[in-house]
């Protein structure tokens, strides 16, 4: 069944999420702009990497920045540095943090760092959660937006209060900003406004920005210099990172100004879903370019319905569905350039068929 | 002074070592061959990565292979897997192993694995060294060729004896084959002939092969599957590795057949150096494409001499010199495509000037 939905999705002409297919063109386009005689970075040195690091440090309002091949590596290292600084091998984060569920326990297996899980799985961390926790932790990690619950955000005032509290308690505050740029239109803040509240910051170059891969870790110079030593230990001090850096820079410039559009599109799109029976988005009104769509129907039924709709309208809503416990399922929507390419009649027809299909499922129950 | 030599080297038209400048053209050429609509690998899955892994497994005569962003990551992981298997957190290798001197102690700081250093710094590990060591180690790592001593090699018979001995003693044998292909013409063996002696094998895609970056780790499927879990923990399970994979494949095909030529060129070139006064190569007769050139003169004197020669002949012998304790210095030569582009008169004139210059230094002493 899953294959059928994924297969039907592959045949569609339009897609709700993302920018364009993740194919070699993504790199080719970025490289076409670059002079072939430009010399590679070499183990973290050279103009290509240093210039981009300086640029991102400026953008994030931090003293220095380091380019990493992945956020997994960058964030484990950030937490290790803060754990070593305080000589406390314990950090706190959300139960659905990327580190807790997607990294094969690298933080524990490689760095022997314990974790304290804050808040419930279905809401973001608040100041009360932090006040209630055992204070003997080196660092608190906040993910903005909280991806696994549809991209929810605390208010900026909550962030400020958490920041003040952590500084008083001598707890380092780290930002998992994989999708930081995507939150700026909602917060109506600059990246450096947000980052000023944190001791260390990670952003991804391939989520909303759509680069090939790579991450930036930023903070004070003493922190970033320590991170370079750990980057080498992790095997991330790759002789040439330029394929990632060039594409990161190219798509950063191409899309940094489009985050407001993605956010507005997400709000509009979520409203479409919320008008369909048995369907709700989380958050109900998105606060970034992303949200989750929950349908209170059996996964197999919705798979069949979607596959049929894709064939008729050529618009793919999702390539997969995830089952939730109680006869329901969900998928993630992450708005990028693709959304604007969908003809309005195609979008309207798709939602009409989706609503009608769910109604028919309900009648037959 | 160092800047002067490096600057003079940059201005040369010909270089003794390497293939061509490490610039963006290296990637552009590899990408030009590829279809832009080819879909990226995704976190270790997809045709691009799986096809290349299968190809390299076949080439190395192993059950399976995994593409890594770096050898540093691949080798630490190999040793961790063998240490966990035996529940012994100790491995053995040469005192000048890459892991011991170039990785900021990642093996110790990340994996808490102790090391036993075998043999003297200036020679390769022999069977006697292994017989004499404490047997309570999980794995022995052999580097072929031993780069930091000019690329020396044990005989194939010694390798066979070490392999038999380690199997009897229940010690895993890992091959640091960063430059494995470069040894095959000397051994007159296939890659799989050599790899059959080892439990696990790493090869680099950017040394003699000249790719952009990346490494292959190969072994039995149970080993490579475990390595994928550790790759994710290290932050090496990058969403898209294709820039490295495509270039690895392109330059593997372009240069795998040229290793015999590089080896012969290195032998010829070492003879030129050995004819110069106060100059000797290690090994005296190379056994791969590489060797070290030792000059029994002060580093500053040789820097000035070389910079002057570069200006006159436009042939760069090295961009740096390393001081050794006793008023002498050395540099590494690693033969690739560049050597064949040097006009014979330029080569001869350069060595004539080099020999003459050293003689004059001696007269003035």
Automatic annotation (TrEMBL), chains A, B:
The keyword Magnesium appears for this protein:
no
Occurrences of domain Aromatic amino acid beta-eliminating lyase/threonine aldolase (ranges)? 41-293
Is the keyword Cell membrane in the record? no
Entry-linked InterPro entries: ArAA_b-elim_lyase/Thr_aldolase, PyrdxlP-dep_Trfase, PyrdxlP-dep_Trfase_major, PyrdxlP-dep_Trfase_small
Q: What is the top-level taxon of the source organism?
A: Bacteria
Its required cofactor(s), as named, are: pyridoxal 5'-phosphate
Keywords of the record: Pyridoxal phosphate
By its UniProt entry, which SUPFAM superfamilies does this protein fall under?
PLP-dependent transferases (SSF53383)
Q: What family does the Swiss-Prot or TrEMBL record give for this protein?
A: Belongs to the threonine aldolase family.
Q: What is this protein called?
A: Low specificity L-threonine aldolase
Species in which this protein is naturally found = Sediminibacillus dalangtanensis
């Amino acid at each position: 069944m899953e294959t059928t939905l994924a297969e039907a999705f592959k045949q569609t002409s339009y897609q709700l999420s993302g920018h364009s297919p993740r194919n070699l063109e993504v790199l080719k386009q970025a490289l076409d702009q670059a002079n072939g005689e430009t010399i590679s970075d070499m183990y973290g040195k050279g103009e290509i990497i240093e210039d981009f690091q300086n640029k991102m440090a400026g953008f994030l309002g931090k003293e220095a920045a380091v380019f990493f091949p992945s956020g997994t590596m960058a964030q484990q290292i950030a937490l290790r540095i803060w754990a070593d600084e305080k000589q406390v091998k314990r950090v706190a984060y959300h139960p659905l943090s990327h580190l807790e569920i997607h990294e094969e326990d690298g933080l524990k297996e490689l760095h022997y760092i314990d974790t304290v899980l804050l808040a419930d799985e279905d809401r973001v961390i608040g100041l009360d959660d932090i006040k209630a926790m055992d204070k003997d932790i080196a660092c608190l990690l906040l993910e903005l937006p909280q991806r696994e619950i549809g991209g929810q955000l605390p208010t900026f005032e909550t962030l400020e209060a958490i920041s003040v509290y952590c500084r008083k308690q001598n707890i380092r505050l780290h930002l998992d900003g994989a999708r930081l740029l995507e939150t700026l239109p909602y917060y109506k803040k600059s990246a450096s406004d947000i980052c000023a509240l944190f001791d260390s910051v990670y952003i991804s170059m391939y989520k909303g920005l759509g680069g090939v891969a790579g991450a930036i870790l930023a903070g004070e110079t003493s922190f970033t210099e320590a991170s370079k030593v750990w980057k080498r230990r992790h095997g991330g001090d790759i002789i040439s990172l330029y394929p990632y850096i060039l594409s990161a820079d190219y798509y950063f410039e191409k899309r940094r100004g489009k985050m407001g559009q993605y956010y507005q599109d997400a709000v509009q799109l979520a409203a479409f879903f919320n008008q369909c029976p048995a369907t709700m988005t989380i958050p109900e009104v998105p606060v970034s370019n992303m949200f989750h769509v929950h349908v209170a129907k059996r996964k197999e039924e919705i798979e069949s319905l979607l596959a049929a709709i894709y064939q008729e309208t050529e618009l793919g809503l999702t390539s997969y569905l995830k089952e939730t416990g109680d006869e329901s399922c969900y998928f993630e929507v992450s708005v990028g350039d693709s959304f604007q390419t969908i003809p309005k009649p195609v979008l309207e027809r798709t939602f009409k068929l989706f609503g009608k299909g769910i109604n028919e499922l309900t009648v037959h129950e």
